[in-house]
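Exercise: predict the fold of this chain.
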Amino acid sequence: MRNQSATIRVVIAGLFGLASARANAQVKLGTIDVVGEVEAPRPDAEVEADRPDSDSVPFVTVVDARTPSARVVSVADLLERQAGVQVRSRGGLGSFTSVSLRGSDANEVAVFLDGVPLSRAASGVIDLSLLPVDGLDHVEIYRGVPPIEFGSEAVGGAINLVTRKGTRRPTYRASAGVGSFAARSASAGYSASQGRLHVDASAAYHGADGDFTYYDNGGTLIDRTDDHQSRRRNNGFDQVGLDVTLGGGQRLRWNLGAHGFWKRQGVPGLGSSGAETVNAKFQSGHVLLDGGLERRGRWADVHATANLQYERTSFANPFGEMVGSFGANVSDAESIAAGVTARADVPWGTHQLVTALSEARVEYRRPYDLLRPNRSAAATSRGIGAMALSDEVRLWRDRLGLTPALRLDGHAASRITDPSGQPIPDQSTSSVFVSPRLGVRLVATPWLTLRASAGRFVRFPTLLEQFGDGAFLLAQPALRPETAWGGDVGASFTVTRPRGSLSVEVVLFGRQVSDYIAFIPTAFAVSAFNIGDTRVLGGEVRAAAQVSGWLQLSVDYTLLDAVNFTDEPGVRGKQLPGRPRHQVSGRAEVTGGPFRLFYEVQFVDDVFRDAQNYNRIPGRVLHAIGAAFERRPFTFAVDVRNLADLRVLDLPLGGSANRGMTTPYPLVDFFDYPLPGRAIYATLALRR
């Protein structure tokens, strides 16, 4: 406690010290508005894809979501080849997909929609395949220390999905696509501005049968007599997404948003061992309503936002098929979350911007076991509040940017109630955490920019981790929050010439997590435990070149050293499972007239399936090609994924007796779910 108080005093003293500093340079200040900001109407010019924000202090990449593509239908598809991003699915099209940034766990990545945190009450992991790109303008990926607006729960970074906000003239858009495994998609949208009113609306449908053949080793590595070709069954999905945003005003600006997502998918079974189901189904639905006001004044800009979310999930496996080891199950759960945020941006002279922020949210979750109603878990609820202060300072004619910040996050007493609704005594927890941060950006030369950032983060246990679901997950009310210190340092190099440009970014990063939360098997269920510390060190290299406007080249490389220092037996010093040590992706794109051609290649290193590092999933190299023809208002695009039709990998066998020997192994994702072979997708899009 004494050390924590000293830290608070030092950071606050630094903030006020910077606030009193003066500089003679006239500097234009800039902020990243992520909380209820209504963009000014703009023409239809596309956002530059996959670019770093050169003016921001943290490392952030902005990815265009508006360019028509034959394959990109969800946020997961859009992010899968970005530097430091690792997408993890559960096999095939439309399957549950999460994301890891720089070796983090999926539940350590905070996901936002227009600055609103998507509800974390249910499980803490957002299914990115559920979120369509049709209503999005761009996606911001904060791989390191994000701004204070994104909270302290961004232990592993943050992703902000920014919706379309309207165009100067009315525009219409529509698309339809088909592909392998009976994939189908359709979308429509409208965007316009009339006077001071801006509107955008979109609707999208995506689906697939999803059944494909794969190499099945029968769950045995050495015995090849049971190897055979299997067909993935019950792997289809249907999903719908709706987005509507409204905004207007001048001095007092306002915005409203309504977003809905629904998906129904089959659950084909666990891993690649041959377990198949034909009846198990999972459904999820999510509705988000949000609104905001912004008052721009002479002395300060004041922002206020509010949001309400409802989520419902259901799982049906009435015949007890081989989905897991828990037998027959029919269950569902509902979650409700509401939050409010207030922020004031106060300019201090011409070179400083002080931001004060306060926020609060409440979460409620209620699970139901429909087969065994007496085993249904009790309802749980909690409240979370925060206050934050940051100071954006631009000195030396805007060449030096400093952003010190301090957040105070409080996890209010969680409450669990019995079936009658009465609170159960001795089942509440509360805690307060202080999170200092500092970001630095230095424009050393017109072509060289240096950046560094560091900070403390906290991830509060989700209600599911803390209180279980009454069936598969046991309660752990005394679960402690995860805390982490993390930071990065790097440089970006950019050279622009009349015939081309070259940009290179090199980053070193690290993160130390304490009280790491993991699910551990206990008897006939699992339970979340604080099992100790983990550490991730690594580096990123990003390079992009453009030649004469017709050739674009890009390469992204990520190195990870993710070490387990937890108290689990036999794992100390081992690599964390599911994190490839090396990951490289490259893209070449040629543009000529109305035609666009591209080629992509991706290498992913071996990953361990288990914490003891005994079992590994072999690395792979995947290729993709595509072409597009654009003649306004139409665009026709074709993508071919897994061009080489890779389905079987060579897995080295362990042990001295098997030295140098390999065995066939199916192409799988990091969760060990089989992936399809070659797939072709085609889309026709209309924009006018």
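Check your answer against the key: Helices lie at 2-20, 75-79, 463-467.
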